Amino acid sequence: MPRLDETAAGVYIIAVTPFTDTGAVDLASTETMVEFYLARGATGLTVLGMMGEAPKLSGAEAIAFTRQIVRRVAGRVPVVVGASSPGFAAMGELSRAAMDAGAAGVMVAPPGTLRTDDSIAYFRNVADTLGDIPFVLQDFPQASGVQIAPAVIRRIVDALPSCVMLKHEDWPGLNKITWLRDAEGMRRISILTGNGGIFLPEELRRGADGAMTGFAFPEMMQGVVDAHFAGDPQRASDIFDAYLPLARYEQQPGPGLAVRKYILARRGAIASDAQRTPRSALNQAEIAEVEFLLARQSDRLAAIGAAPRD
Amino acid sequence: MPRLDETAAGVYIIAVTPFTDTGAVDLASTETMVEFYLARGATGLTVLGMMGEAPKLSGAEAIAFTRQIVRRVAGRVPVVVGASSPGFAAMGELSRAAMDAGAAGVMVAPPGTLRTDDSIAYFRNVADTLGDIPFVLQDFPQASGVQIAPAVIRRIVDALPSCVMLKHEDWPGLNKITWLRDAEGMRRISILTGNGGIFLPEELRRGADGAMTGFAFPEMMQGVVDAHFAGDPQRASDIFDAYLPLARYEQQPGPGLAVRKYILARRGAIASDAQRTPRSALNQAEIAEVEFLLARQSDRLAAIGAAPRD
Amino acid sequence: MPRLDETAAGVYIIAVTPFTDTGAVDLASTETMVEFYLARGATGLTVLGMMGEAPKLSGAEAIAFTRQIVRRVAGRVPVVVGASSPGFAAMGELSRAAMDAGAAGVMVAPPGTLRTDDSIAYFRNVADTLGDIPFVLQDFPQASGVQIAPAVIRRIVDALPSCVMLKHEDWPGLNKITWLRDAEGMRRISILTGNGGIFLPEELRRGADGAMTGFAFPEMMQGVVDAHFAGDPQRASDIFDAYLPLARYEQQPGPGLAVRKYILARRGAIASDAQRTPRSALNQAEIAEVEFLLARQSDRLAAIGAAPRD
Amino acid sequence: MPRLDETAAGVYIIAVTPFTDTGAVDLASTETMVEFYLARGATGLTVLGMMGEAPKLSGAEAIAFTRQIVRRVAGRVPVVVGASSPGFAAMGELSRAAMDAGAAGVMVAPPGTLRTDDSIAYFRNVADTLGDIPFVLQDFPQASGVQIAPAVIRRIVDALPSCVMLKHEDWPGLNKITWLRDAEGMRRISILTGNGGIFLPEELRRGADGAMTGFAFPEMMQGVVDAHFAGDPQRASDIFDAYLPLARYEQQPGPGLAVRKYILARRGAIASDAQRTPRSALNQAEIAEVEFLLARQSDRLAAIGAAPRD
After folding, report:
1. ipTM, 2 decimals?
2. What pLDDT shows up at residue B149?
3. How confident is the model at residue B256 (pLDDT cuts 50, 70, 90)?
4. How far is CA B31 from the centre of its chain?
5. D195: closest CA of chain A, how far (Å)
6. Can you tell me whether residue A172 is helix, strand or coil?
7. Which of C260-265's residues contact partners 24+ apart within 8 Å by CB, and which partners?
C-alpha cells in the first residue's frame, strides 16, 4: 500500500460517514459514496475526521468502516484516517488498525486543553505513539482552541520526520502558508487546506498543494485546483465564485454537516442524510435556502460552462 | 434629534475611524467618509464599534469624533454610538456625552467574562446606567465569547423597554432570527445583522430589518436590502453574489480591518488606510489578492448592470 | 449488585489508575489500592475519572480495569465508572460493559464544545444512551469549560429520573449547593463534592452529602464528613485545617496528579507513581515541597490527635 | 518621587477602592485604608488593579483616587497604578497622569483576545506607549485567558528595559518562577506573586521577592515574607497555615472581593463593604462562614503567638 508523504496534492475529500435512518453505518452507501468522490476528482480520501462523526462510532465500527473504505478504494487513491483521541493508547490502537487495513496515514489534531507552548511536546508524543506511521498535523484553532504559531509548526516538522502534511485550517491563515513556504531550510511538507474550501484560490497561490475538505461538490475543489495548476487563475476563480454562495452556507459550524449530508443524499452519493445523535437535521427554512442556492448554482455553472457531474 | 426605536431598518454602516499617517484622528476624512456612506445608501451610521478602533481613542477623542460625525450628518440619518466598556461609569459617561452631542442611541456588547446566565442581570445594569437612552444589544459570540440564547434575548427585551434593537451577529444564527420573529407576544425590536453581511439575503428572509455592518461597498447592503423589500430575491442574490468573494475576504478576523480601510482609501472615502496601534497593514500578497478581487468584482457588477458609484 | 441512587453519601474516592514503570496497568497495585481506600473510610469508589487517566487506557483496558476493581471490592461499596466520551456510541458501550461487570452507576461530564443552553438536550441524549443505568452529572466548569446554571441542573434532574447524583465541582459553588437544596419541589439527588476537598466543611454545611474526590489522604474526607454528621463542626475544621496545606498543594491543575501518585506510592497504596504519557513527574523542588508539607502535617495531626492510618 | 525598579520586594498590597453606601468613592476611607495597610507591613501599594474595581471608575475618578492615595502615602512606600486598558491611548493617558501624580510605576495585563505568540508585540507596544515609565507585567492566565510561556517572558524582559517586575499569578506557576530565576544571562526583575497569597511560602523558596496581593490580613504576607527572609521556613509556614483557611475562602473568584471588603470594613480599614455595580454582597450563609473562619483564625494565631494588629 502507498504511504502518505510530502508529495501529496490535489483534493483529499473529508468523507462523511453514511448512516441508515435507524442509525447503523450504511454499508451500501459507503460503497456508492467512495465512487461518487472518486468520480469527481478526489485524489485522496480522509475518513473519521471531525465532519465524519468519528466520535459517534465505537472503536470496532471505526475499524470496520476504515476497512470497507480501503477495500472499495482498492488502491486508486490514498486513504487517511482521523486518529485524534484524548489518549495515546486509543490513538495508537486505531492508527495501527488503520494501517493494517491499508490506510496511507493518519491525521491528528491536538486536544483543546493543550497550552500553546506544549504543542511540540504533544506531537512528539504523537510521533512516539505512531512509530513510523506518517501523520497529518491538523491545525484547526477554531475547533480545537489551540493556536500553533508558524515557528512552532516548523519546529514540529523539523523534529518529527513522520509529520508529512499540514492540514491547514487556521483562519485567517493565508500568511501562515506563506511563512511556511518561505521558511528557509525547512523540510518540505504537503499543505492541504480545509475550512470548506472558502479560501482555496488564495491558499493555492500562497503555496498550498490542494484541499482537504468535504464540500458536497468535490467538483469545486477539483476545478479550482486544476485551473490553478494549469496557470489559469481567472478560470479558477470563475469556478470558485459559482460555488461560493453554497460553500459559504455549508460552512456554518452548526448546521453545516446537515447541509452537506442533505446535498450528498440529494445527489445520490448516500441514501440518507441521517446523522447519529447528537444530530442536527435541516428545518424547512434551511431546506428552502439550500434549494434556492442549488438552483442558482446550476444556472451559474451552466453560464460558465462548468456543470457538475450529476 | 430623532431617537433610535424599533422601526429602524435599512443599512446602518459601521463607520471606521479615519486616522492620518501620524496617528491623529483625521478630521477632513471624517467629513468625506460621512458623505461617502450617505451617498451609497446608509440609513444610519454606527461609530465607535469594534471595527471603529474605539478602544484606541481616549475618552476626549471619542466624544469629539462623535460630535463631528453628528454635526456632519446633520440629522439626515440616526447615529448610533458604541458604548461597550468594562465598567458602567465609563459606559454612562460616554453614553450621556454621545446623546448630548445628538446621537440617536448607543450600542452595548457584554464583556467576555460574563457567564451566560448573568446576561439578563448585566443588561439590567446597562439599562439602569443608561436611563432612558435607547440601546442596541450587540450579540456577537465569536468576538465576545458570550452565548446568549434566544429565550434570554427575549427576556431581556421583555424586561427592558430601552432595548430597541438587536445587532445580530451570532454565527450561525439564522434560526435565532426566526425564533425571535416567531416568539409569540414578544415586543417588537429592530434586528439588523452584522458579520460583514455575508449571510444578508438569508437573514432578510428570516425577518431581519436590514444590516449593520461595515463592508467597504455599502452598495452591496443597499442593493440587497432594496431588492429584498421590493420582493425580488433573485436580484438580491445577483447583487450579493457579485460582492461575495470580496466580502468573504474582508471578513477575515485579523486582516479584515486593513482590507476595509485599504478599499475605503482607494475609493476616496478616507485619505489614508492608517490604523492606530495595534495595527495590521496589508502586505504585498494581500494587496494583490484584494486588487484581483476588485477587478473581478467590477466585471461581474457590469455584467449584471449594478456598477458601484465610484 | 446495588445500584447507585439518591441516598449515596460519605466519601467516594476518585481512584487513580496504577501503572508499572513500563506503562502497563499494575494489577497488583490495583488490589492494594482498593484495600488502602476501603481501610481509610471510602464509602464508594469512582474509577476512570479525569484524575484516573481514563483517556490513556484503551477500551479493552478500561473494561478489564473496571472488572478487577469490582471483583476486588466484592460488594463492600458501590463502584462508579467514568463514562464521559466525545460520542454516545463509546459512552454506551463502556457503560453497559461497566454495569455488566458489576458497577453501581456511571459518571458523565459534558464535552467542552457544548453551548450552555444545550446542556439539557445533551443530558437527555446521555439518558437515552444509558437506558436505565443510573448516572452522576459531573459539573466541573474549570475543566470542561461548560457552565451549567442551577436552574438548568434542576431541569435536568426533573426531566431525567436516571440522574441520581451531582458531582459538584463548580468553583466557587457554595451558593449552587444551597440553591439546589432549597429548590422547592425538586426531586432529591445525592450531591458529592470534588475540587480536591478544599471546600468540604462549607460544602457539607450547605447540604452536600459528602465528597467525591481523590486527595491522597482519604482520612481527611472521612474525618471531616464524620465530624460534620456527628454535629461537631469545630472538630471537622480541626481535621480539615491540618490537611489543608497539602490538599491545596495537591490541587494544582498541572502537577496535582503527580503529587497524588507520589504520596500514594509513598504510603504503599500503589507500587509506583508512574503515569502514562502525557505525564508529569515531580521534580526535586516539588518533592522537597511535598516532604516539607508531609512532615508538618504529621506534627499537626499528632497535635490534634488525628494521626492517619499508615 | 522614587521609581519602581527591579529591587522591589516585600508586600505590595493590592488596595481595594472604598465606596460609600451610595456609590461615591469614599475619601475618608481612602485615608484610613492607607494607614491600615502601612501599619500592617505594606512595602508598596498597588491601586486600580482587578480587585480594585478599576473599570467601574470614570477616568477622572481614577486619576483623583490615585492622587489622593499618593498624597496620603507621602513617599513612605511606592505606589503602583493598574493601567490595563483595551486601547493604548487610554493606557497612556492614565499612566502619564498617574506618574504626574507621583506614582512609582504602572501595571499592565494583556487583553484576553491576545494570541499567545503576539505577547511580545503587545508589550513592545505597551513599552512604546509608556516611554520611560517603569511597568509591571501582570501574568494572570486564569483572569486574562492569555498564556505567556517563561521563554516569552524572558524575551519581553530582555527586549524592554522598562519592564522591571513580574506580577506572577499563573497557576500552577511554581516552576515558572524557578525557570525565570535559573535563566542564564537574563536581566534581573522583581517577581512578586498574587493569587491571594495561597502559595506564598513555596513561591518565596522558588525565588520570588515577595507578594503583591490583597488578602484582608496583610499581616499574613508580612509575617511569611519576614520569616522567610529571616531563614525560618517553619515559622513562615506556621503563620501561613494559620491564615490559610480564610485566605482560601477569600480567594474564590466570585464572592472573593465581597469577602475581602467585608473583613476590611469589620477591621475598620474602610467604612463600608459597598461595591459599585456589578457587585456581589455576602449573603447570610457566607457571613456565617467568614465569621466561623475568623474566630478559628484568632484562636490559631493566639496559639502560635502571632495575633494580628487589630
Report:
1. 0.96
2. 86
3. very high
4. 19
5. 20
6. coil
7. C260/C16, C260/C51, C260/C214, C260/C215, C260/C216, C261/C16, C262/C287, C262/C290, C263/C216, C263/C217, C263/C290, C263/C294, C264/C16, C264/C33, C264/C36, C264/C216
Q: Which residues contact B246 (CB under 8 A, 6 or more apart)?
A: B217, B290, B293, B294, B297
Inspect the interface and report whether the beta carbons of D289 and C205 lie closer than 8 Å.
Answer: yes
Residue D168 φ/ψ, nearest 5 degrees: -95, 115
Give the mean model confidence (pLDDT) for residues C195-224: 97
Of C57, C122, C129, the CB nearest to A87: C57
Which position has the grid cell 478559628?
D296
Note the pLDDT tens digit of each residue in D177-235.
999 999 999 999 999 999 899 999 999 999 999 999 999 999 999 999 999 999 999 99
Query: What local confidence, expressed as pLDDT, does residue A114 receive?
Result: 72
- For D154, the grid coordinates are 524572558
The stretch C48-60 carries a mean pLDDT of 90
**Quick check: C278 and A125 CB within 8 A?**
yes
CB contacts < 8 A, C to D, total 69
Cell numbers that stand for D204 in this block? 518565596
DSSP C197: G
- pLDDT score for D307: 77
* The pLDDT of residue D35 is above 80: yes
* CA-based nearest residue to C44, from C100, C107, C126: C107
Task: State what percent of residues in chain C have pLDDT above 90.
Answer: 82
Instruction: Write down which chains contact chain A via at least 3 CB pairs under 8 A.
Output: B, C, D
Is residue B299 classed exposed, middle or buried when 0-12, 13-18 and 19+ CB atoms within 10 A define those classes? Answer: exposed
How far apart CA A155 and CA A149 sit, in angstroms, is: 10
Q: Which residues contact A231 (CB under 8 A, 6 or more apart)?
A: none
d(CA C13, CA C80): 10
Lowest pLDDT segment from A290-299, B171-180, B229-238, D238-247: B171-180
pLDDT at B216 over 80: yes
% of chain A beyond a pLDDT of 70: 97
The whole-angstrom separation of Cα D32 and Cα D28 is 7
* C-beta of residue A200 within 8 angstroms of C-beta of residue A240: yes
Does B115 sit within 8 Å of C117, measured CB to CB? no
Using pLDDT thresholds of 50, 70 and 90, give the confidence band for residue D119.
confident
Quote the pLDDT of residue C247. Answer: 98
Which residues of chain A make contact with D117, given a CB cutoff of 8 A?
Answer: 116, 147, 149, 151
* Percent of chain C as helix, strand, coil, to the nearest 5: 50, 10, 35
Residue B291: all three cell numbers together: 486588487
If one counts every other C-beta atom within 10 angstroms of the C-beta of residue A178, the result is 17
For the segment A89-111, what is each residue's pLDDT rounded down to a tens digit?
889 999 999 999 999 999 999 88
What is the SS3 string spanning chain D?
Answer: CCCCCCCCCEEEEECCCCECCCCCECHHHHHHHHHHHHHCCCCEEEECCHHHCHHHCCHHHHHHHHHHHHHHHCCCCCEEEECCCCCHHHHHHHHHHHHHCCCCEEEECCCCCCCHHHHHHHHHHHHHHHCCCCEEEEECHHHHCCCCCHHHHHHHHHHCCCEEEEEECCCCCHHHHHHHHHCCCCCCCEEEECHHHCCHHHHHHHCCCEEEECCCCHHHHHHHHHHHHCCCHHHHHHHHHHHHHHHHHHCCCCCHHHHHHHHHHHCCCCCCCCCCCCCCCCCHHHHHHHHHHHHHHHHHHHHCCCCCCC
